[in-house]
Design goal:
5 helices
C-alpha cells in the first residue's frame, strides 16, 4: 500500500475519536468501561482537539510526495506518537484499566506504528 492511503486512514480514525472526545468524552470512554470525572473529561476534550488537528494535517497533506521533508517529519511524529500510544494502551489493557474493548486502541496503535515505521525505514529509489 501507499503512504497516502495510510495517512487518509489515520486521518479518518483520528477525526472519529477526536470528535468523540470533544463532544462526548464520558460516553465514549464508558464504551471502554472507564468513568471520567469532570477534570479528566476536560483533558479528554483537549486530546480530542489534538486528534482533530492531526487528522486535518494528515488529510490535507496525504497527496504530497513521500520524500518531502514535511511528510517525513509527519511520518516520524506518527511513529513516535503511535509507539507511545501502543505502549500506553497495552499497559492499560494488561492492567485491567478498561474492558476488553480496550484492545481496539492497542491494535489501532500497533497497526499505525507498524505501517508508518515501514515507510520511515523503507529504502527510496
Amino acid at each position: 500500500m501507499k503512504l497516502n492511503i495510510w495517512m487518509g486512514a489515520k486521518a479518518v480514525v483520528e477525526v472519529f475519536f477526536g470528535i468523540g472526545f470533544v463532544l462526548v468524552p464520558v460516553s465514549l470512554m464508558s464504551l471502554f468501561g472507564v468513568s471520567l470525572n469532570p477534570g479528566v473529561a476536560v483533558i479528554a476534550r483537549l486530546c480530542g482537539a489534538v486528534f482533530i488537528a492531526s487528522s486535518i494535517t494528515l488529510w490535507q497533506s496525504r497527496n504530497e510526495s513521500p520524500n518531502h521533508k514535511v511528510i517525513r517529519a509527519m511520518v516520524v511524529a506518527t511513529v513516535v506518537s503511535n509507539g507511545i500510544g501502543f505502549i500506553a494502551t497495552l499497559l492499560a489493557s494488561l492492567s485491567g484499566v478498561w474492558n476488553a474493548f480496550g484492545w481496539f486502541p492497542v491494535v489501532l496503535n500497533l497497526t499505525f506504528v507498524s505501517a508508518f515505521a515501514y515507510f520511515l525505514f523503507k529504502k527510496t529509489a
